[in-house]
Design a protein that fits this description.
Blueprint (H helix, E strand, L loop, with lengths): L22 E5 L6 H15 L2 E8 L8 H30 L4 E6 L2 H11 L3 E8 L8 H10 L7 E5 L4 H7 L1
Parallel strand pairs: 1-2, 1-4, 2-3, 4-5
């Protein structure tokens, strides 16, 4: 068996002996379109033999007057993030049939996502869904497509955020 990559390997298929499955990374936030990205990534990973990755980025606490209050705020933010990741992991399990890889990061969303992609070679596709609102596709998509696309080592898949489950199912 050859260790060379085939076109399918870029889409999640594991073709080389000992090759780890591609991770389709979804950024977990509170937007309605995130569920579209989650569904697409879960179904695509199932179809191609890949895995789903979920990343939640929390902002560091800006409250530094009293360390105890700042620590409490950080702990609460982390607890909320872990709960949100668990909820979405359950949805991934339902759609994909396995547990996702879960990442929890602290810092600026844009930098944290790019750093994670740089650190984890199993992440091979970033899946985002575009907002359907008047303000544009969303801050992360805008940043990546205008300023940082050249910094990434992987493709970015942007799913229209207004797709129905049935439309996603037909696309995957």
């Amino acid at each position: 068996m050859s260790d060379s990559l085939t076109p399918d390997s870029a889409l999640g298929h594991s073709t080389a002996a000992g090759d780890r499955p591609a991770v389709f990374l979804v950024v977990v936030d509170n937007s309605p379109e995130m569920r579209v990205a989650l569904r697409w990534a879960s179904l695509r990973a199932r179809r191609t033999g890949g895995r789903v990755g979920l990343v939640r980025v929390i902002r560091p606490s800006d409250f530094q007057h009293w360390a105890a209050v700042g620590n409490l705020m950080s702990a609460e933010a982390r607890e909320e993030a872990e709960q949100l990741l668990q909820e979405h992991a359950a949805e991934v399990f339902r759609l994909y049939g396995g547990m996702p890889v879960v990442y929890l990061r602290e810092g600026d969303m844009k930098s944290a996502v790019i750093d994670l992609i740089d650190e984890d070679n199993d992440i091979r596709i970033l899946v985002l869904a575009a907002s359907t609102g008047r303000r544009g596709p969303g801050p992360l998509i805008t940043y990546l497509t205008k300023k940082a696309i050249g910094l990434l080592r992987i493709p970015v898949t942007i799913i229209p955020g207004g797709l129905s489950d049935e439309q996603i199912d037909r696309l995957v």
